[in-house]
């Protein structure tokens, strides 16, 4: 059977799991939340990575029910962490093409009782480029609830900077390609500085993705980046291991 056929049965067969990667406040080094990352435990192939199935799920419309499951699961998990620990959930542009996205978020918040301020939705630049009027309205509705909106993988897409002003974003996540070469390539430092300055002046928080070394961490703290994520702090782990990150503090 094809991966596509298997994907159609994966949700009902409970083959999806969420892993959680810690997000750190760079000033205090406290864990302030986690990003939920989808995993598919395929009965024959083992763990299938998101890049190998998300695009298929998008093409055949399955990302809508899968995305709804992710939101439910992530919000319920976040309720097991101390308030105000946050949960970040990735949204695919295809979920915006479905008119039920706002209702889906409302349902996940209502059934979990998670305060909306503790939910961060990660969107990519393509959400601002395509159907931007409709998506802008949906994002304003979500912001009005108190839900936070992060722009993921920033710097790699094709959007214009003017979207940063028009869209109700609360955070910019700097793509890990800029962090990787921070110490080697002076151009990367220049770009990271410019993004941090821009985000600060627009009143947004910043997360640096893919921090792997102490030297990257120190540079980003010095430059005023608010939050960080990466293997230096922790890899994505199953839900039951998130408490280990939290036990270490307070
Ligand atoms: O851990 P990593 O390989 O998990 O994730 C790879 C990519 O898959 C990330 O860029 C992320 O945006 C995407 N991704 C992970 N989980 C989800 C999810 O629940 N929904 C969507 N739409 N994308 C996800
Ligand atoms: O695009 P998004 O940021 O949502 O994807 C997160 C992806 O980045 C996941 O695949 C996750 O496993 C990966 N990731 C997280 N931290 C690091 C890191 O420090 N180094 C590298 N190479 N990948 C990372
Ligand atoms: Mn992300
Ligand atoms: Na990213």
Automatic annotation (TrEMBL):
Q: Which residues belong to the signal peptide in this entry?
A: none
**What positions does the domain EAL occupy?**
1-250
So where does this one cross the membrane? Answer: none
The name this protein carries in UniProt is EAL domain-containing protein
Q: Which organism is it from?
A: Lichenifustis flavocetrariae
Shown portion of the complete protein runs from 450 to 699 of 741
């Amino acid at each position: 059977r094809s991966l596509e056929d298997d994907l159609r049965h994966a949700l009902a067969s409970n083959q999806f799991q969420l892993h959680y990667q810690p997000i750190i406040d760079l000033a205090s080094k406290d864990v302030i939340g986690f990003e939920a990352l989808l995993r598919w435990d395929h009965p024959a192939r083992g763990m299938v990575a998101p890049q190998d199935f998300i695009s298929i799920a998008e093409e055949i419309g399955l990302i809508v029910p899968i995305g709804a499951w992710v939101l439910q699961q992530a919000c319920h998990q976040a309720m097991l962490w101390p308030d105000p620990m946050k949960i970040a959930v990735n949204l695919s542009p295809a979920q915006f093409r479905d008119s039920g996205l706002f209702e889906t978020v409302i349902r996940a918040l209502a059934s979990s009782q998670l305060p909306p301020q503790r939910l961060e939705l990660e969107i990519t630049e393509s959400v601002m480029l395509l159907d931007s009027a409709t998506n802008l309205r949906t994002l304003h509705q979500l912001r009005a609830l108190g839900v936070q909106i992060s722009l993921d993988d920033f710097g790699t897409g094709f959007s214009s900077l003017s979207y940063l002003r028009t869209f109700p974003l609360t955070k910019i996540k700097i793509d890990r390609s800029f962090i990787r070469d921070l110490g080697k390539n002076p151009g990367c430092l220049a770009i990271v500085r410019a993004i941090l300055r821009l985000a600060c002046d627009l009143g947004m928080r910043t997360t640096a993705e893919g921090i792997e070394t102490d030297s990257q961490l120190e540079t980003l703290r010095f430059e005023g980046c608010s939050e960080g994520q990466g293997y230096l702090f922790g890899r994505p782990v199953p839900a039951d291991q998130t408490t280990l990150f939290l036990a270490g503090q307070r």
